[in-house]
Amino acid sequence: MRNFLLVLWLGLLASSQLHAQAAPPAGRVVVTYLDSKLLRGNAAGENPRRRVSVYLPAGYEASPQRRYPVVYYLHGFTWSDSLIFNKDGMKELLDQAIADGQIRPFIMVVPDEHTRFGGSWYANSATNGPWADFTARELMQFVDKSFRTLARTGSRGLAGHSMGGGGTLRLALAYPGTWAAAYALSPALVGPHPSLLPGAGLTQVLRATSPAEVQRSYPALLTVALSRAFSPNPQAPLFGADLLGSLGADSLSRRSAVLVRWVAASPIYLLPTHTASLRQLRALAFDWGAQDEVRHIPPTCRELSQWLTTFGIPHSAEEYEGTHGSRIMGRTGRVYQQVLPFFNKYLDFGP
Question: How many domains in the chain?
Answer without folding.
Answer: 2
